[in-house]
Amino acid sequence: MRTPDNPVRGSYGFGAVGVGVMPGPVPKPPGQRRRRNKAVKAEQLPAISAKATPILPDSDGLLERTREWWKTVWSSPMAAVFLEADVAALARLASLVNRVHRGESSARLLGEIRALEDRFGLSPLARRRLQWEVDRAAAVAGGGAAVTETEERWRRVVSE
After folding, report:
1. Nearest to 58 by CA among 87, 98, 102, 91
2. Which of 35, 32, 42 is nearest to 133 (CA)?
3. pLDDT tens figures, 101-122
C-alpha cells in the first residue's frame, strides 16, 4: 500500500514515481550522442585514373579484345583504389573474360566473372554497394576528352 512515508517500490527496488522506470546509465546529452546506424559517406573516385596500366601477366594467347578490356579496367576510375595485390585477381578475371571472348561461355563461367566484377566495383551496382562515387564534376572541369574516350571503350567492351 502506498503512503507518504512508504512509497511503492518497483521490482528493482526503485521508487515507482513514473511508469517505466528502469535501471541503467543516464542518457548522454544530445551533443555527445552518436548514431550507430549513421550512413558512411561514399568514397569519391577521380574520374580519370592516374595509375599506369600494369603488364597483364601471362598475356600470351590472349585476344586483342581481352587486352583492350584490361586497358579499359585500368583506365577506369576504379583503378584508383586497386592495389598491387589486386593485379593477380584481375589477371584471373582477364583470363575468364578471354574465355568468353573465345566463345567458351557457360552459366558457371559468367557467374564467376560477375562475382569478380562485383568485388572490384566494375558494375554500377557493385560501386553502389562499395559506396564508391565517380567525381564527374572534376572530369567536366578538367576537360572531358579523356572521360569520353574511357566511356567509349567501356561501351565497346560491353556491346561486344
Report:
1. 91
2. 42
3. 999 999 999 999 999 999 999 9
Q: Which residue has the cell 593477380?
A: 88
Dist CA 136 CA 47 (whole Å): 6
Cβ-proximal residues to 12 (8 Å cutoff; 6+ apart), any chain: 22, 23
27-64 confidence digits (pLDDT tens): 889 888 887 777 778 889 998 888 899 999 888 889 99
For residue 63, the Cα-to-chain-centroid distance in whole angstroms is 29
Which residues in 29-40 are b (16+ Cβ under 10 Å) and which e?
Answer: eeeeeeeeeeee
Q: What is the pTM of this model?
A: 0.64
Residue ranges per structural domain of the chain: 43-159
- φ, ψ of residue 74 in degrees (nearest 5): -80, -10
In the 3-class helix/strand/coil scheme, how is 96-145 assigned residue by residue?
HHHHHHCCCCCHHHHHHHHHHHHHCCCCHHHHHHHCEEEEHHHHHHCCCH
